[in-house]
Amino acid sequence: MQIQTVGILSPGDMGQAIAAVLNQHGLKTIAALDDRSDRTRQLAAAANIKDVGSLKQLVIESDVVLSVLVPAAATQAAQEVAQAIASVGKSILYVDANAIAPEKVRSIAQIIESNGGQFVDASIIGPPPRVPNRTRIYASGKQAIELQQLRDYGLDVRVIGDEIGQASGLKMCYAALTKGLTAIGTELLIAAHRLGLDQQLWDEVSSSQPELAKILTRSLPSMTPKAHRWVGEMEEIADTFQALDLTERIFQGAADVYRLVKETSLGRETPEENDRDRPLPDIITTLSQETLTVDG
């Protein structure tokens, strides 16, 4: 199959950036924007994504549909696309690139394949691909090799196996480290602030754990507008670990941290509104004050 048109579900921060890269390298991208928000429409327009209106039309025009959504929306989106596939009678390639547990991605594969579609499990590691060589898309499944065509259009696609669940499992383990660490760092810095030990703790971390200090300085400012998405991701990681007979409670706690952050003024910002240069002490002060209000 020659990929010429990629349907994007949905052109949010990550989906829009992926589409922009594909468009810049000569591939056509489309989205079904009926009933979508003004922000989503603006992001799509900025990336030159063509609006085809309905999901049915998206299936008609696409060779590949790439699902990049919040975890909670992954199954419903697949069900709606599967219905369109069955209605149109077209066997498109559906790529689930959401941060979801392997067990869930296997159930989604069944939904797509039972309605006549083909399925690839994928996971995105790294930021939205606005800077070359910083974002990887891992893929698994018997049709995963088809997705490697996108390497010719600016994306770093890496096939790691032919089993559905491998790519998602990799994402779960990696995000458990990176976003789990960010959650721990967020909570402990808030704790230090409330104890009046901000500077003393940061001086010690900067001295004895300089690489960790760099990670927290980089990760916390960009985390706050994404916290609402990371709640579900931590819950998916918890489900993954529980299925492996490991404790899920660590990541349920991380979900709780992001649940608090998303209710703050920083958590309510969009990625476009977020000030990446906002000083870390200011972020922690705001989170400390506003999560205390949420807690209360």
Summary tags:
296 residues; alpha/beta; 8-stranded mixed sheet; 12 helices; 8 strands
Explain this structure to me?
It contains 12 helices and 8 strands. By secondary structure, the protein is α/β, with parallel strands linked by helices. It has an 8-stranded mixed sheet, with helices on both faces. The chain is globular. The mean pLDDT is 95.
Write the SSE topology.
Blueprint: E1 5-9, H1 13-24, E2 28-31, H2 38-46, E3 50-51, H3 55-61, E4 64-67, H4 74-88, E5 93-96, H5 102-114, E6 118-125, E7 136-140, H6 144-147, E8 157-161, H7 166-194, H8 198-208, H9 210-223, H10 227-243, H11 249-262, H12 280-295
Parallel strand pairs: 1-2, 1-4, 2-3, 4-5, 5-6, 7-8
Antiparallel strand pairs: 6-7
User: How many beta-strand segments?
Assistant: 8
Overall pLDDT confidence: 95
Give the number of helices. Answer: 12
* Alpha-beta classification: alpha/beta
Q: Could you give a short account of the major beta sheet?
A: 8 strands, mixed
Low-confidence stretches: none
Radius of gyration: 20 Å
Helix content: 40-55%
Shape: globular
Order of helices and strands: EHEHEHEHEHEEHEHHHHHH
Briefly, what is this?
By secondary structure, the protein is of the alpha/beta class.
